[in-house]
Amino acid sequence: MARATELSRIRNIGICAHIDAGKTTTTERILFYTGRIHKLGNVDDGNTQMDWMDQERERGITITAAATTTFWLDHQINIVDTPGHVDFTVEVERSLRVLDGAVVVFDASAGVEPQSETVWRQADKYSVPRIAYANKMDRVGADFDMTIASMIDKLAAKTCPIQVAWGAEDKFLGVVDLIRMKALLWHDDTKGKDYEVLDIPPELAEKSAKAREKMLEACVEFDDAVMHKFLEGHPISEDEIHACLRRGTVSGKIVPCLCGSSFRNRGVQPLLDAVVRYLPSPAELKPVRGTSPKDNSEMFRKPDNAEPFCGLAFKIAVDPFVGKLTFVRAYSGVLASGSYVYNATRGIRERVGRLLVMHANKRDEVDQAETGDIVGVVGFKDTKTGDTLCPETDPILLEVPVFPEPVISLAIEPKTREDQERMGMALGRLCDEDPTLKVKVDSETSQTIIAGMGELHLDIIVDRLKREFNVQTNTGRPQVAYKETIRQIAETRVKYIKQTGGRGQYGDVSIRLEPLESGKGYEFVTEIVGGSVPREFWPAVDKGIKEAKEGGVIAGYPVVDFRAVLYDGSFHEVDSSEMAFKIAASMAFKEAVMKARPVLTEPVMDLEVVVPEDFVGDVIGDLNSRRGQVQGMTFRGNARVVRALVPLGEMFGYVTSLRSMTQGRGNSSMEFKLYEDVPKAVAEPIMAKFRGNRGEGR
Predict the structure, then answer these.
(1) Of 115, 426, 495, 581, which alpha carbon lies 20 to 30 A from 277's?
(2) For residue range 483-504, what is the model confidence (pLDDT) as tens digits?
(3) Distance between CA atoms of 400 and 405, rounded to whole angstroms?
(4) How far apart are CA 335 and CA 369, in angstroms?
(5) Which helix (H) or strand (E) holds 641?
(6) Does the pLDDT value for residue 24 go beyond 90?
(7) pLDDT score for 41
């Protein structure tokens, strides 16, 4: 079955924003006005199409990215509604990795909020063209101009407003379209389906004329002929303006900005028009770049059905009806239902059982996926998030998305023997779905530890175990994911010699540890000259250090951000083995760490607290008591915004504490910022406990 829509008329877009900016409501209105749904759902009523999980409807937040397909002006729009809560930022990251454009939604009364910055940086990372939409223009304190100013200030965004707001707060009526120079007025009695195109109100005439001039100055530079007309003072047609805006948006050099109130059903249709007019189709993208699994040479795939198939598995979901569902973005070629495809990342063949086009948790079956499509595949057994799919005869490896490390963990145990059996399987499935969820068994206590991005993240995981997999559990208190690192260079030499009756063991390594900057992880290099340690034993040394670094030397936490250099050693013709060198490397690593000034580090969060003026003193005092460092304060409407860096270990239960401190009027959001050294007074009890567990220092 050939696709009905040609490639140039397809848009793969994400709707992204800070939590509670109105992403899901905006998506819901888009589906309503495009005829995909016939009844408006609301987040507050828990009846939206895109937030289909029970936990999403109860909490009024998006947890998992939901995909849907709809049509507008003869264009097919594949939409991914992404979460706004920082604990689920990986859903945004992997969605932006495969999308061609994004609509970034802002709360017009708050401007740029912390998670808006994170989303914007993620879009920058993958060079995703954007449209900005200032939502909630009906809110108290809503100000389109302020939102634009905060985008310029905080995001260094090259904004290009193509509308002027007609009123604000409870007097928000519609918008002035600066391209047509007409006012758009929405009607409440048709749920915003109809709007009138009127002359610009006199009170907005001057402002609109100035705004249009600025818009033209920003966009004509993308077409020399149009710029010449503009400089000569000749009129510029609507089509020419659209073409200039499209060119600037697709190149990532400007961001068209619109405004509206999705909840009040105003401003969504012009947003849809902007999506099809300015965001790119898959056909306009550069060829996707990858490497050859055979020789690591650079390869490209053009967005064309005639090319060999190339797709990226960007999300795994457990569907109650079809089982494991793998979301795949097709960058080139065609993938047919019932065929086989090669997973180049894992070197395995997978069978394509069925291909589904998704609408949240509903699905329509299709015969094939073509270039530019986003589909769900049923039948893959071993494919994971980030894997590349291609023909075995013409393999290519795409860049794998990098996911953040967990910052918080808790112990979890099943209540009964039956739960024990189900829990392992359930956690395995949830880890397949969520690359930021890590599961391990503590070697000392034999407890199962789950680690994730925040308290809410782990809370949802435990809730899903109970609801979806019928696993009853007991959980411990959340624990901070501390790390260990080193602060100076250190060298050591260890010989591991073991003589038994038969063949002995001999491994001799000299290693040097060097500190790396935060976030660099682990590197292994060799400086062996003259074969003092044969090449075949180098991987064993690397493996020995890798295993040893997982259980640190001062508090038992993983050691990170260092380079291990194997620079000398010796071997025995008969007794040397991979095992001997692995053991020697492990022992040498532990010795060297103790010489390299090891320190304990903790995750520090970037916290934003929005509170009425009366409570600022109490909030700052409380943050100081939590080892917080206030970075600055600004005004947002009548409220004060306090930005601070605070250790995660001091933030458990903060939301409840803030509510009681501010009579329920304060709110906060935080995201991981960096790892910093733990103060000595805080670190000492943690290290003493570790020594006590190992039976030291008694």
Answers:
(1) 115
(2) 999 999 999 999 998 876 667 8
(3) 15
(4) 5
(5) strand 639-647
(6) no
(7) 56
